Amino acid sequence: MIETSQSASPRRPRTVAYTMSRFPKITETFILIEMLELERQGVRVEIFPLIREREPVQHADAQRMVERAHFCRLFSRPVLDAQIYWLLRRPGAYLRAWWRAVRGNLESPKFLSRALVVVPKAAYAARRMVELDVDHLHAHYATHPALLAYVVHLLTNIPYSFTVHAHDLYVERPMLREKVAAASFVVAISEFNRRMLIDLYGATAEERVVVVHCGIDPTLFRPRERREPGELFTIACVASLAGYKGQRYLIDACDVLHQRGVPFQCLLVGEGEDRPHLEAQIRRLGLTDRVRLLGAQPRHNVSELLQQVDALALPSVVMPNGKMEGIPMALMEALAAEIPVVATAISGIPELVRDGETGLLVPERDAAALAEALLRLYTDRDLGRRLASAGRQLVLREFNLEHSVAQLRALFERDWRMDGQRPLLCEIEA
């Protein structure tokens, strides 16, 4: 009996392509670790960033993914060749992609200008994904990465999905209804985001949007050793130095603690455009020996830092344009390390920081309330231990990287089981 090639050779591993705005980006650890865990679980990952990010600080695990990533310059021969390829092979789909991208972004000059870059790069990505036999395309963020996925789908019929995080939903939503309708599924990182999408797009969103929390590695962020009372009370804030992170209110709270005679230090980890303003505020309040800015740090440094702190504060705020947090990874990492946390009750944060159960919540832009919450943790160490222990258990159950990626992989597999119900590219062209 002569075996067919299909029965003679083992089935190839499934391949998922990932796209994001910038890679590797120090503040987007969640994308990197999700891809690494997906590969650990047996799925091949191909990476198609819109822009190659070049930062002085990079996570240790990022380099090997960078070396495999499919970067492309807009003005390059491969991108030009891809336009000609699709114009000749699928002219209707190619022109339709351009028409929808331009029409869908006309109301925003910023998004329109970026769409003019995304569509050519999507044509390049589409051609490479066909060559690589990609089974599914997943985008992080509902803006430009989801537009790339949408265009690739129009050109190739490769099914796609995308994860909705924060600013991509709360600030501007160009073409989001169309992107949701064409997607196999949409991942919301919080129930807050899922409800918002359903309120916006009704039944279309309700049948497609699922909640999959971002996850952290609980073996990296392990419980810290107990510190003896009486040591300097150490507060950390791990976040980019941007207005919506609210560090200015934490510095004001530190001033209150200083006036109350609390022996403390506050360590701000992160970098960003607000650094000069925060430095000036620290000097003005006379806190230069109490509040230190440590700059951007890779996650292994953050893990080591958390072993030395007594509380983590993240006083996030909602900006006038609607910009705000989703569920910050820094809160998950701190709770995994059994560090008590203080945060604000906005967006999806209360799904992780449950007031009086896994942490303390305070109103946004309220430095006095923030100072009082930190003072509670300073004076009642047993309270902090109880909150942090419950927080770690919640992270292990619901914000665990392995479990979250397994949920995502199950969604991909559900999509792959539907392969036979979709027309092949050759059938679309017929």
Short description:
With 430 residues, this protein is an alpha/beta fold.
Total separate domains: 2
Strand content: 5-15%
Distance between the termini: 35 Å
Q: What is the CATH top level name of the largest domain?
A: Alpha Beta
Mean pLDDT: 92
The CATH H-level superfamily of the largest domain is Glycogen Phosphorylase B
Please state the overall shape, judged from the principal axes of the Cα atoms. elongated
Share of residues in helices? 40-55%
CATH architecture field of the largest domain:
3-Layer(aba) Sandwich
pLDDT < 50 runs, ≥5 residues: 1-9, 423-430
3D architecture notes:
The protein is of the alpha/beta class and 430 residues long. Helix content is 47%, strand content 13%. The chain has 19 helices and 14 strands. The strands form three sheets. The chain has a six-stranded parallel beta sheet with strand order 3-1-5-6-7-8, with helices on both faces. It has a six-stranded parallel beta sheet with strand order 11-10-9-12-13-14, with helices on both faces. The chain has a two-stranded parallel sheet with strand order 2-4. Strand 5, helix 7 and strand 6 form a beta-alpha-beta unit. The longest helix has 23 residues. It is elongated and about 75 Å long. The protein starts with a helix and ends with a helix.
